[in-house]
């Protein structure tokens, strides 16, 4: 680990000042400290924001939900408002990590975490995300766990967050505070596809601070859930996952929100699946047909072609669990 300076921000104004000067924000530290230990990240200054008042979970007057950036993952998963309104979020958090990590890691830190690609974390390997212009070792290396959607010739790493998949499905928004004031970014635009600049992963400007993640109000009743497929049941990252939320009224699907994880360079929204569902009556045949559209645009690599079929089965299974059959 390389030497660094440390400062603890007593309020938001102090945090923004330190961030504007180049400091890196840290709260739970479960990802950044690991990367520093592996010398992948080498920040000159850490700005501890764990004391800032960003820990509330509030139901909006419209019926949506606001989750403070410093809410611990365990707190959000167990919160009655989250469990009642959006069980897909609770379940994604519960499947994200060990209990110890969930007690430390924050919601804001979770969506900011960097990829678990082994080549990114191996400082001797070529990685455009870590060292732009060096190449991508995963393209022709062992790429079983890598992405099949949203990839480029510069990067095929998956985004590791589970709850980010739920946020993507629910079309959440990220609120940011920075030197130029407050702004709001749709979750679909917050995490960036690699393109030719894989080193730029989030739409966060220098010195900006995540304050809240807001889930919009959705029609009721809303049934939702999260399914994670992995190599082992104990703590492991997803091979594929599916976040599904359905509003069914009068026996007809009126609203559908679906996203996939473990397969994309960012949490992957599935609009083609959603469009196939809306206006239809739940049935086994519908779930199968809709899930077939989950892999549109997929570009599998040598070792992860199995993810094409696995993603379809994952989406189909979770649609059936959430929507039922007749």
Automatic annotation (TrEMBL):
The record lists the organism as Streptomyces coeruleorubidus
Query: Which is an annotated Pfam family here?
Result: CO_deh_flav_C
State the InterPro entries in the record: CO_DH_flav_C, CO_DH_flav_C_dom_sf, Diverse_Substr_Oxidored, FAD-bd_PCMH, FAD-bd_PCMH-like_sf, FAD-bd_PCMH_sub1, FAD-bd_PCMH_sub2, Mopterin_DH_FAD-bd
Task: List residues of the FAD-binding PCMH-type domain.
Answer: 1-220
Tell me the protein's name. Answer: Xanthine dehydrogenase family protein subunit M
Quote the PANTHER family the UniProt record gives: OXIDOREDUCTASE, XANTHINE DEHYDROGENASE SUBUNIT C-RELATED
Q: Does the keyword Lipoprotein apply?
A: no
The record's keywords, sorted A to Z, are: Oxidoreductase
* Recorded superkingdom: Bacteria
